[in-house]
Amino acid sequence: MNGWSRSRALSLVAFAAVGGGCQTGPGFELPPLDAHVDLGLPDASPDSADTCASDCEWRCEECGATEVCDEAARTCEAPRCVPDRSVGEFTFCFATTDDGYDVVVRYDGDEPLDLARSETKLNGAPIDLTDRFDASTQTFALRASGLEPSKYSLLLRMTTQSGRAVRPLFLPMWIGPGLRYSEFTWNDAIVYQILTDRFLNGDPSNDIDNSVGSLAEVRDRRSQWQGGDFAGILQKLREGYFEAMGVNTLWISSPVLNSHQSQPSVDPNDRRRFSSYHSYHPVATGYTHLDDYGYANPIETAFGTAEELHALVNEAHRRGIRVMPDFVANHVQREAAIYARHPEWFFEYNPCHDRWEVARIGCWFTADMPDFDYGANPEAVRAVVDHALWLIQEFNFDAFRADALKHMDDVFIRALKAAIVAEIETTVDDHSRALEPSVFYMVGESLGGWARYHVREDMVQGQVDEAYYQTVRDSLLTFGRSLRELAEFAVVNDRAYLVEQPTMGGAGGFPGAIMGNFFGNHDQWRALTEAGGIANPDSYRRLRLAQTMLMTSPTNIPMLYQGDDIGTEGRQDPDNRRMQRFAGLSPEEQSSLDHVRRVGRLREALPALRRGLREQVIVEDWFWVFRLTYEEQQVFVAINRDADKRWRPPDGYVDALGVCRDGSVPTLSSCVFVPEDQVP
C-alpha cells in the first residue's frame, strides 16, 4: 500500500469525503512519505484503484447525509458533535480524540454553493469534496482516525452558484496527547528566532545574485543577501536541531515577497545602500486568494517556494513545533502594488530618523518605505487584515511576531485581533487567555517604553520585553548591575503584565498576558559581544548564565536568537546578523550549545520552570538562589557571579546541569536543582 495503510484511513461521511475517500488523480500534492505525513488517504497506486472504487461505493452509499462512515468498523455512525458554532455563513462543530477528529459544517447562505469553483484544503493540500456534497442540506461531515500527532487544519474557500465568494472557514485542530500537541498552552512555548536569510542555505538554486541591478550598490557583504532559506530550516527540523533545545516554536522572517533592489538608509544623510534580506521591505502586502495585486507568487523567492513553506510548516507541526512568522503591517516598500494602486492609503513622506517618538505614527522608516495611514483609511485596514488572514489560513501559521506595533494606529491592531478571534480561533473556547492549543498568539515589538501599552485583550497577548532584556544584559552580560537588582526585578516582572496599569496615556496589561523574554535579538548587540567577546575569557560563561536565566524565567516565553545558542559576536546592524554556524565550533561554542540544550530540555520537562511561581531563597549582590513552585513540583536555581559559593539544595535534589556537586556552586556558573527522580 506504499505506506498509505487502510487501517489509518481518513473516513468521511456520505456526500462529504475528502477526495471522496478515493482521490487518485493529479493535483493532490502532499509532502513526501519520508516526511511522515499520513492524512489517511487510500493508496493511489493503479493496481488498487478498482478496490478503492468498490470500497468507496460501499462506505459512502450505505451512509446517510448526516452519518459518518467508519471505515475500520464498516459502519455508519452519528458524528461525535452537533453544529453549534457560527462563523460567517457557516455553522459547524468539531470533536477531537487522541488520534482523530469529527467535523460537521453546514452552509447557511441564501444561495447554493458551487463546489466546482470552490477550494478546500487540509494542511495546505487541496482536497476534493465535489463528489460527496449533499446539496439538499448544504452539509459536510467528516471523520479522520488513526492520525499521527500534528496540527490538522481544514480550510473552506467556497463560491456560490452565482459566483460570489463566501468568507472562508478555517478550522485548526491539534491532535495527539502531550505538551507539544493538544496539551500545549502559550506559557509552555520556547521560541527560537530565525533570521531566515542568515540561518542555513539549503538550496543554492534560489540564491539572489547580489551583483545584479541596483543590488550591486550594496557594498557591505553583511548587508547583502546570503542565501538562507526554507530548505535550510527544513533540514535542521529533520535533524532535530530545535527539539534538542526543547524548542517548540520557530519565529521566522516574514515570508512575504520583498524588494530585490537596493534600499536607502534610515538616516537620510547616510549614503550607504542595503538589501532587503531581513524581509522588512514587503511588496506583496495585500495579497489574498481573491486579489493577487498582480503577483503570481507572493512568497519571497530568495527563501523558496510556497510548496517549500508548506513543507516546513507541516514538518514543524508533526514535531509539535509551532511556526510564528514576522508580520510587517506598518509599511511597504515603494515598489509595492498596493502603494501604486492606493497611494491615498499612506502618509506623505515624513522621516522617522531621530524623530521616532514625536513622529511615532505616520513617519517613514526610509524614503522608500511608505507608511500606512490606517486611522484615516478603513479600506486599508480591511485590505491588510484580509492579507494577514490569508497568510495564516493558507500556511497554517500559529502566531505572529507583529513588527513595529507602536508605529501603527490602534484601529489596525484592534481590527487584526478581532478578525483573528473571529476567523482564526474558530476552535477556541476562551479567547481571553492563551491556554488552548489553537489560540493564535501575537507578540508585538514596541520598544522605547511602549511594551505595556498594547498588551490588552483587544490587541496582543504579549510584547518582546525590553525591560527584561536590559536588566538581564546588565546583570549577566556586561556586569553593569548586580544580581540583587536582577533578582528584585525578576520576581515582580514574571507577573507584572497580568494586571492593567496606566501607561503612555492609556493602559495595558491583562490576566491573559504572556510576554516574550529575550537577552538578544536581531536589533541588539550580540550577547557575547556585550559580555566582552572572545577577547574576554569569561564571556562564554556569562552567556551561559543568561541562557539559564532565560530558560528558568516562568510565566512568559523565552525567545532565543539564532547564534546565542553557540555564542556569536556582532555589534549593531548588520554586524549582529551573521550567518549561523553549525560545524567547526570551538570548545566554548560547543559548551554553550550543550548548556542551552540541557537547560532548554529541562524547561520542556518541568512545569515549574514554565508555569511556576518564583520566590527568593538567597539574594546577595553577586549570588542568587530562587525557588520555582508549580503544584507539587519545586525546582531551585542558583546563579553565581561571586567566587565559589557553598549552597546545598534540600535532600534528594541534584543539579540537572551537572555543574554543582557536594554543596559547591562554582564561580560564573548556574545550577538547576531538581528531585533526583525527576531529572529528564
List keywords for this structure.
680 residues; eight-stranded parallel sheet; five-stranded antiparallel sheet; 20% helix; 18% strand
Overall description:
Among the domains are: 6-175, Immunoglobulins (Immunoglobulin-like, Sandwich); 613-678, Immunoglobulin-like (Sandwich), CATH 2.60.40. It is built from twelve helices and 27 strands. With 680 residues, it is of the alpha/beta class.
Q: How far apart are the first and last residues' alpha carbons, in Å?
A: 38 Å
Give the overall shape: globular
Strand order of the largest sheet: 16-15-14-13-12-11-20-19
Tell me the helix content: 10-25%
**How many individual helices?**
12
Number of strand elements: 27
Largest sheet report: 8 strands, parallel
Low-confidence stretches: 1-58
* Content-based structural category: alpha/beta
Work out the strand percent: 15-25%
Name the CATH homologous superfamily of the domain at 6-175: Immunoglobulins
Overall average residue pLDDT: 91
Q: Quaternary state, please?
A: single chain
Looking at CATH, which topology of the domain at 6-175 would you report? Immunoglobulin-like
**What's the CATH class label of the domain at 6-175?**
Mainly Beta
